[in-house]
């Protein structure tokens, strides 16, 4: 893929061109920034494409690996594997944070994408339960754990990389590339899953069709790694390394000197953790399994919502640059508290147009949080522990509440017999995030801290 063919990079760089004084004062060329945007986009895209495919094909995967269970139990077991893979993410956050802050951002990102793409490819090769019995879900679990470890370094590293390369006043817009690429990975996963369910019979999908998307990970991952190895590390990190100021024990320094910011960051991430996986990953399963909407219609509705989400995410990044991170994040929490339950009630009408409009609304609400959070978290911590602070807080919150969100949503529905249970779960997450963000300080207008 050529740099010029990346619409995300071209759009952001075009925005930079409107303020040429920033580019003249910056030691980083536009061509370098273009390559940084492209590398960050592709790498994060590959990482989250897998999570999309696994979530969107969860019903089929359940029949392949848990055929002896009833449909709801099989689905719960499939989402339990999804959740267990997240438990390793805090450990991954410590490891990747240490590598990223001590050795370099580029090294950590190049390794993480190689591990993720290889593990995702291996999922396509696992025989089903009918062939090797209990070893099928065991192997799936092992590979999911490897993926969780890899993914724990991607989102944080790509965000820190972009923020440290961004020109002054554009950090929110640049960092929005990360959730934008995440949504693009989900979008491709949704499109492929919808295409497979439309073109293949249930028997063909269960037999071999579900494996096809996972095979795509290997070539995409190699492309992303190649681009990343051609980049220098960020100017901020190179400056620390040149002065021999890179922290020898960044994680220890994080807990010793920045524990308040760490707690605030964990709370701020909560709405992102729950909202992302409920609205963008679990939703097709919710619509088809809980509300009885056809699988093809469920994928189509989610696909439309994802397209609009990608557009909104960059708008939110620009809004956070103009009005500040806190105002936008607080707005996100308030809209979720007020509108989530009515929105889920409208999903229950079964009207396809209403469902699409509700999903677009929920996605737009989520972008207020998702489009602002990467720059917010990166700016909370100084350069010497930025990767660690972002990775630990983001992955801890996602391990506890993000990876478990599809499982909890399914479990809450079964326990309460209410299709609105996931909505109330989202409201609770929004309340916690609101408090955490309100207690934090505004960082959008300040220069990045290095010490």
Automatic annotation (TrEMBL):
Gene Ontology cellular-component annotations: plasma membrane
Subcellular location per the Swiss-Prot or TrEMBL entry: Cell membrane
Secretion signal, residue range per the UniProt entry: none
TM stretches of this protein: 48-67, 73-96, 108-126, 132-151, 172-196, 208-227, 262-283, 298-316, 328-346, 352-369, 390-417, 423-440
Main location: membrane
Membrane topology: Multi-pass membrane protein
Region (Disordered): 1-28
Entry annotated with the keyword Nucleotidyltransferase: no
Listed InterPro entries: H+-coupled_symporters, MFS, MFS_dom, MFS_trans_sf, Sugar_transporter_CS
Residue ranges of domain Major facilitator superfamily (MFS) profile in the record: 36-445
GO molecular function, one term: symporter activity
Gene3D superfamilies listed in its UniProt record: MFS general substrate transporter like domains
Primary role: May be a proton symporter involved in the uptake of osmolytes such as proline and glycine betaine.
Family stated for the protein in its record: Belongs to the major facilitator superfamily. Metabolite:H+ Symporter (MHS) family (TC 2.A.1.6) family.
Protein name: Putative proline/betaine transporter
């Amino acid at each position: 893929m050529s740099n010029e063919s990346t619409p995300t990079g071209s759009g952001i760089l075009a925005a930079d061109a409107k303020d040429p004084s920033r580019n003249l004062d910056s030691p980083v060329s536009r061509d370098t920034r273009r390559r940084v945007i492209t590398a960050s986009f592709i790498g994060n895209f590959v990482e989250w494409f897998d999570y999309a495919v696994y979530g969107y094909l969860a019903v089929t995967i359940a029949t392949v690996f848990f055929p002896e269970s009833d449909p709801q139990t099989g689905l719960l077991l499939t989402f339990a594997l999804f959740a267990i893979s997240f438990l390793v993410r805090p450990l991954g956050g410590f490891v990747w944070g240490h590598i990223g802050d001590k050795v370099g951002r580029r090294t950590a990102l190049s390794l993480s994408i190689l591990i993720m793409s290889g593990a995702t490819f291996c999922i396509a090769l696992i025989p089903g339960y009918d062939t090797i019995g209990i070893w099928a879900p065991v192997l799936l679990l092992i590979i999911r754990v490897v993926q969780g470890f890899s993914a724990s370094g991607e989102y944080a590293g790509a965000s820190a990389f972009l923020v440290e390369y961004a020109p002054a006043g554009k950090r929110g817009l640049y960092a929005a590339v990360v959730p934008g690429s995440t949504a693009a990975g989900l979008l491709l996963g949704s499109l492929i899953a919808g295409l497979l369910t439309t073109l293949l019979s249930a028997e063909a999908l269960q037999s071999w069709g579900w494996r096809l998307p996972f095979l795509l990970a290997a070539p995409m991952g190699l492309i992303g790694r190649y681009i990343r190895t051609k980049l220098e590390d960020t100017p901020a990190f190179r400056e620390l390394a040149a002065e021999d100021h890179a922290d020898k024990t960044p994680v220890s320094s994080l807990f010793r000197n920045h524990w308040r910011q760490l707690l605030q960051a964990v709370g701020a991430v909560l709405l992102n953790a729950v909202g992302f996986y409920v609205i963008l990953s679990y939703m097709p399963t919710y619509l088809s399994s809980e509300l009885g909407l056809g699988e093809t219609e469920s994928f189509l509705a989610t696909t439309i919502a994802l397209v609009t989400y990608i557009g909104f995410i960059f708008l939110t990044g620009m809004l956070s640059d103009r009005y500040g991170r806190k105002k936008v994040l607080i707005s996100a929490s308030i809209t979720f508290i007020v509108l989530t339950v009515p929105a889920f009630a409208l999903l229950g009408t079964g009207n396809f147009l209403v469902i699409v409009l509700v999903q677009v609304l929920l996605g737009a609400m989520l972008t207020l949080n998702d489009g602002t959070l990467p720059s917010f978290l990166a700016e909370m911590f100084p350069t010497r522990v930025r990767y660690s602070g972002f990775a630990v807080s983001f992955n801890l919150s996602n391990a506890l509440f993000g990876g478990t969100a599809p499982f909890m949503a399914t479990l809450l529905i079964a326990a309460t017999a209410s299709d609105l249970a996931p909505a109330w779960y989202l409201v609770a997450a929004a309340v916690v995030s609101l408090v955490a963000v309100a207690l934090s300080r505004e960082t959008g207008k300040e220069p990045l801290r290095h010490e």
